[in-house]
C-alpha cells in the first residue's frame, strides 16, 4: 500500500487552529495526528476534549489520536465521541493492554499501541495480532521538534519481522523527528505512516511539505 502522512497539530498555531486544519484539508495528508498529553505520562500538557471536538468540526480527514496519558481506559469513549477514528495508547501506560485494545475496537475505532524508544519491540509479541497500528516513537514523547533517534530503523525492521505472517496489514507509524531526509529510509525499513509536526508547520509552504512527504517512494 501507498504510505500515509499524518501532520501533527502539536506544532500548529493554536490561535489559528481552524486555518491550519483547513490547510490540512486542502493538502494530500491522509490523517490529522492529535497528541493528547496529561502532564503525568509525559512532562507536558497539550489539550483535551473541547479542542479535539473543535478540530473534528473543521477537519475532512480522520483523526489519529495519540494518547500520552496514564489510565487511558477512563477516557476512551469520550475520545471516540469527540471524533477520534484511531486511538493509540502507550504500551508503558497500560497494565491491561489487551483489555484496553478490545475496548477501543468495541468503540469502532482503529486500535494502536505506541512504544517508547527504550521499550523492546519484542514486548509487542503477544499483542501484535490484535492491533491495527503500532506507533514507534522516534523521540521521547512530550514535545515537538526533537531530534530523531537513529535506532528507529532497526526497530521498524524488527517489528516487520515480528508481524510477518501474523498481521501483514499492520500499520507502522513513526512519530518524532520525521523529515524530508529520513522519510525514505523509514519507508524502506517497513514503516507506512509518517507523522510530521515541525517539518510541516515550520515549512514556508506546509502543503508542499506534505506533498513531498507523500511523494517519497521506497522503490
Ligand atoms: C511527540 C508527539 C509527536 C510530535 C512530533 O510526543 O507524539 O506527534 O508532534 O513532532 P515532530 O514531528 O516535530 O517531532
Ligand atoms: Zn504523536
From TrEMBL:
Catalytic activity: D-ribulose 5-phosphate = D-xylulose 5-phosphate
Key word Manganese present: yes
Listed pathway(s): Carbohydrate degradation
Obligatory cofactor(s): Co(2+); Fe(2+); Mn(2+); a divalent metal cation
Keywords: Carbohydrate metabolism, Cobalt, Isomerase, Manganese, Metal-binding, Zinc
EC number(s) on file: 5.1.3.1
Binding site for substrate: 8, 66, 142-145, 175-177
Top EC class for this record: isomerase
One example GO MF annotation: metal ion binding
Active site (catalytic residues): 35, 175
Entry note: cofactor: Binds 1 divalent metal cation per subunit.
Binding site for a divalent metal cation: 33, 35, 66, 175
Key word Cytoplasm present: no
Protein origin, superkingdom: Bacteria
Biological processes, Gene Ontology terms: pentose catabolic process; pentose-phosphate shunt
Any GO CC annotation of this UniProt entry: cytoplasm
Function: Catalyzes the reversible epimerization of D-ribulose 5-phosphate to D-xylulose 5-phosphate.
HAMAP family noted in UniProt: RPE (MF_02227)
Family statement: Belongs to the ribulose-phosphate 3-epimerase family.
This protein's name: Ribulose-phosphate 3-epimerase
Organism expressing this protein natively: Olivibacter domesticus (Pseudosphingobacterium domesticum)
Phylogenetic placement of the source organism: Bacteria, Pseudomonadati, Bacteroidota, Sphingobacteriia, Sphingobacteriales
Name of the gene this protein is made from: rpe
